[in-house]
Amino acid sequence: MPPAIQNPRFLLSQCRLPFHFTPAPLQLPPNPSLRRQLHRSAASALSSDPQTISRDPKSPYPSLPSPPSSQILSIRESLLSRQRTAADIADEYLDRLRRTEPQIRSFLHVSETVMREAEEVDRLVESGAALGPLAGVLIGVKDNICTADMPSTGGSKILEGYRPAFDATAVRMLKEAGAIVIGKTNMDEFGMGSTTEGSGFQVTANPWDISRVPGGSSGGSAAAVSAKQCVVSLGSDTGGSVRQPASFCGVVGLKPTYGRVSRYGLMAYASSLDVIGCFGSSVIDTAIILNAVSGHDRFDATSSTHEVPEYASCLISIDDLDSKPLKGLRVGMIRETIGDGVDMGVVSSIKDSALHLEELGAIVTEVSLPSFSLGLPAYYILASSEASSNLSRYDGVRYGNQATADELNYLYGDSRAEGFGPEVKMRILMGTYALSAGYYDAYYKRAQQVRTLVRKSFKDALDKNDILISPAAPSPAYKIGEKVNDPLAMYAGDIMTVNVNLAGVPALVAPCGFVEGGIAGLPVGLQMIASAFNEDKLLRVGHIFEQTLQNFKFVPPLLTE
Ligand code: GLN
């Protein structure tokens, strides 16, 4: 049964309900180690709650032998030192993909030319020619990012069989840097959803617990990196689709500033919010990918001419870290994100992360973003409105599925009725409604006004702080099917991320802890937010945070069994 269609007024009134936050002031004693101790004992005092985090050294969660390291750099080193061939590396990933894919289902299409391309890299190594920075690196690409000679469906039946004649700019840049596209990853249809259950083809499973969702809409890209089916991957983030799955799957996810990466070749969902982002198993890998795909593109008028720094080179090696590497960094913890309606284990992980940042020398205070809860309904009105216009191009004439019909209007109508899934139809109806004469002022215009407020509240908070922190999602990964018939509950799960897209600023999610659930705990991600074009700052902080985190190993049980 497709979910019932809700009108935007209902959406506006309901969306706020589960997020009536009562701010819980964080009272920290002056001594950080005492604070940590107190925080832990407060957590264990609450341990009747099954989701309270355990950070005891004897905890059931496996401990970290060494901090996450760059897979990209280690591949490069193995190739240059001739310890391994690109073909050998590709074979290892393809083998793991073959073994894990029946359970995980991350990919909609796996490239047939991976081994051939890897052998080409080996020939370059043999000849002593210069290698691109991503030579031999296997990358998964979300299926709404166009790839020449490979299907690109955006997770929709309406584009089944569509093979673009061109590569998206981001894909072209990755290929020019030597990367090998391993395949196209599963996603909610056109990016509308938070679980991959909205895919027209299959549901991806979370490698941490295959009965749970990987998050979405870039769930396939996150699960593929988590299950080590590829080294890194591209996703897209309109309202959190890179950050929420990164949190659910225990990987690093980066949503760049709007305009940092060209959208040319990214299937438009909500053009004023869409960005291409990336996933990796370490912060440094996301920095390297960001470097490869950033920059102005004459095919995307909204892409920025802002200079691209060498993101990866600002990351300090762990051996060079002094005891207070974040000394003086002003961190604002968003009060509205750590109150009622948020899983206690998640809140606990975020507060522990705040303490960890303090131990590294940062000054953490609570900040309030007054318009925070308005962001969710405003996002759904704006995103649906833009989608209703963007998706009009799928008419059965230009691409993909075409219905048989005697009249042109039926051809359009039937092709769309057959090709689009229920969530996409609901969004098109909601968006058309919000834009229609008589309702425009009440919905679309008001949502734009809220967007202005959101931008201003982020600007104010980021004028006083270097970064803001929050959870990336109000809960860890939930069960497949749990929210599939309750669109409002699903939308409410986007509360932590949508404001960042409305403000157009960058955000990085890095694994920060576990809550109970699944076989070995479920990962939780810390969202770090900075001002526009401050990705370098985010990556530096994220890298230090990740390299100094103790007792965590972000390898899903599927790979250690
Ligand atoms: N879950 C949100 C939505 O359905 C965000 C999606 C996205 O970022 N692509 O719109």
From TrEMBL:
Similarity comment: family membership: Belongs to the amidase family. GatA subfamily.
Note: This protein may be expected to contain an N-terminal transit peptide but none has been predicted.
Domain of life where this protein originates: Eukaryota
Keyword vocabulary terms for this entry: ATP-binding, Chloroplast, Ligase, Mitochondrion, Nucleotide-binding, Plastid, Protein biosynthesis
Family matches, as SUPFAM superfamilies: Amidase signature (AS) enzymes (SSF75304)
Predominant subcellular localization, coarse grouping: mitochondrion
Record-listed E.C. numbers: 6.3.5.7
Polar residues: bias regions: 44-54
InterPro entries documented for this protein: Amidase, Amidase_CS, Amidase_dom, AS_sf, GatA
Organism: Canna indica (Indian-shot)
Protein name (Swiss-Prot/TrEMBL): Glutamyl-tRNA(Gln) amidotransferase subunit A, chloroplastic/mitochondrial
